[in-house]
Design goal:
heterodimer; A: about 290 residues; mainly alpha; about 0% strand; B: about 280 residues; two-stranded antiparallel sheet; 12 helices
């Protein structure tokens, strides 16, 4: 009897298999399969032959757009990083009525969807938009010669506008984790504020700054809505807009997937960093909790 | 008051003003467009304002203008899809989140990778291939197809936030319940689930908002038959700025409300990949 029970226990599947099965099989079918397909399909030409034809075509037609995507991403990420670190530093060190108001204010845009940001920016940055009209009114530009912003600069402005709040949230969170006693100790040992920042604040919150940067970078590479509504099919445009054109106008899944692979390659480094650091954080929390 | 102090306060007020203008400038632009009836270039502000476009959009007033459609059907479609998505996504995300938090799983990190990958890589190539697959099996351009894609997009938040919540609940509580005779299932439903309820609710709201706002997935899978609110915004922004702005504001409200509600419990890693 006891023997039979232990055999049954051995044969019984571990309960987590049942719990994980629906979600994992959903992700395998809806995510992993299409993900692998974007690689395999990038080698399939429309008449069913295999080869590098799609890559050659992408190289000919879209090299400029890939460079443009990379440039916008690097520029927006860098500006976001600098401004977010400065703002987080201000919020960390300054306790005043104004800093309290800013702390409440800056978070507002975090959840605004990109489609709304895109509509906002198309009205705001247009040649006849609020920005140009206001600048003309205060005499900074001539209204007959408005700033043309449906390009690199406007796109970067939109990305930076959307990404700074989220980056400040992460970086400021990292700064808050550093105990005041470290900073006071350094100050009493004679370190000036600049030295406290470069020797304590930044090094100790390196991981949260990195996570913010990595997420901002990979989100910008993958964003379709903002460039699609702001720049559209103009040249140069972003990879995401090209993918939509390939699919909607030509039903050309080969080149679309090749462009998709290019966008994966652009984020490869940041994606690996993000995945590894997220999983490490969880496993560390688990081992310390047990 | 020393001169230095005055200068610092002046600089701070300047910073506040600049931040205020940068954050609210684009939002202001939306609002002005939504009430502009006549706005001829190069006037700084509209010559004639009114809530006509709001009334037309909300179906209170009929109009024959180009692009003037009632947005109510799109609004209810978006709402229905979001509710179904939350229900289905949470149904499979809660067990997975619990398993990831409470069991030592072989290849556990591979499974975590799978749930995090949509955040790490661009999602558009996935939608492109889903369109190809869905076209073959007749799901492209249908509401069920769109629901499946929205579940995919919300899954990261569903699984990740619920598993963080379950991880924070001490295992010994459930063990204590079991030691006085409760079955495993009963211990889960009576002890763990009520304690996890706030976190589960937060993740459900995340899934809801992502579904309501989802554009790219709907664009590839749903076009041209599934007109959710973001799709209506996109299609009217080409020729009717006022309607597009009205819809944008309607989509803006839940996101700002959600932000102010969730302020206190907001954890940075939740937000990655939103929008």
């Amino acid at each position: 009897m006891a023997d039979r029970l232990s055999v049954r226990r051995k044969l019984r599947l571990p309960p987590y298999l049942l719990l994980l099965f629906p979600a994992v099989s959903f992700m395998l079918l809806m995510y992993a399969y299409p993900f692998v397909s974007s690689f395999t399909r990038s080698f399939v030409v429309s008449d069913g032959k295999l080869g590098f034809f799609n890559y050659a075509k992408t190289w000919d037609l879209y090299l400029k757009d890939i460079a443009f995507t990379f440039a916008v991403t690097v520029f927006s990420t860098s500006v976001t990083a600098v401004l977010a670190v400065l703002l987080a530093m201000y919020l960390r060190f300054r306790q005043s009525v104004v800093s309290g108001m800013l702390a409440g204010l800056y978070k507002l845009p975090i959840f605004i969807p990109f489609v709304v940001v895109a509509q906002m920016m198309t009205t705001f940055l247009a040649p006849h938009g609020l920005l140009n009209l206001t600048l003309a009114r205060i005499g900074l530009i001539n209204i007959d010669n408005p700033l043309e912003l449906f390009n690199f600069w406007g796109l970067s402005f939109g990305f930076i506008w959307k990404m700074i709040p989220f980056s400040v949230l992460i970086i400021h969170g990292g700064f808050q984790m550093i105990d005041n006693s470290y900073i006071e100790a350094a100050r009493s040992a004679g370190a000036r504020r600049g030295k406290v920042i470069t020797h304590i604040l930044i090094p100790m919150s390196k991981s949260s700054i990195m996570v913010a940067l990595v997420l901002v970078y990979s989100q910008i590479v993958g964003t379709f809505t903002l460039p699609y509504m702001l720049i559209g099919g103009k040249i140069p445009t972003t990879i995401t807009v090209d993918i939509a054109h390939r699919v909607n106008y030509f039903r050309d899944f080969g080149v679309a997937n090749t462009l998709g692979v290019c966008s994966y390659l652009l984020v490869l480094g940041t994606a690996i960093y993000y995945l590894r650091s997220s999983v490490k954080r969880v496993t560390e929390a688990e081992s310390s909790g047990r | 008051m020393s001169l230095k102090r005055i200068l610092v306060i002046a600089a701070e007020l300047m910073l506040l003003l600049v931040m205020f203008l940068i954050i609210f400038g684009p939002m202001m632009s939306l609002f002005i467009w939504s009430i502009a009836i006549r706005w001829y270039w190069p006037a700084t502000l509209p010559q004639e304002i009114g809530f006509d476009y709001w009334r037309q959009a909300l179906g209170l007033q009929k109009s024959l203008a180009i692009g003037a459609v009632s947005i109510l059907p799109a609004f209810f479609l978006s709402l229905t899809i979001a509710v179904i998505v939350v229900g289905l996504a949470m149904l499979i995300a809660i067990p997975a989140g619990y398993a990831l938090a409470k069991y030592k799983i072989p290849f556990g990190s591979v499974i975590m990778f799978l749930f995090l990958m949509p955040n790490a890589f661009p999602q558009q190539p996935i939608f492109v291939n889903l369109l190809r697959i869905f076209t073959r099996i007749g799901l492209a351009g249908t509401i069920p197809g769109v629901i499946l894609v929205h579940i995919l997009v919300g899954m990261v938040f569903g699984v990740w936030i619920t598993s963080a919540t379950f991880r924070a609940i001490p295992t010994h509580l459930e063990e204590a319940a079991r030691s006085v005779g409760a079955s495993k299932t009963r211990a889960f439903f009576r002890i763990t689930l009520p304690l996890a309820a706030p976190g589960i609710l937060a993740s459900a709201v995340f899934v809801f908002i992502t579904s309501l706002d989802e554009f790219t997935g709907t664009f590839f899978i749903g076009l041209p038959f599934v007109n959710t609110l973001p799709m209506t915004l996109y299609s009217s922004s080409g020729y009717n700025m006022q309607f597009a702005s009205v819809i944008a504001i309607i989509l803006l409200i839940p996101s700002i409300l959600f932000m102010t509600l969730i302020q206190r419990v907001l954890r940075a890693e939740y937000v990655g990949g939103m929008g």
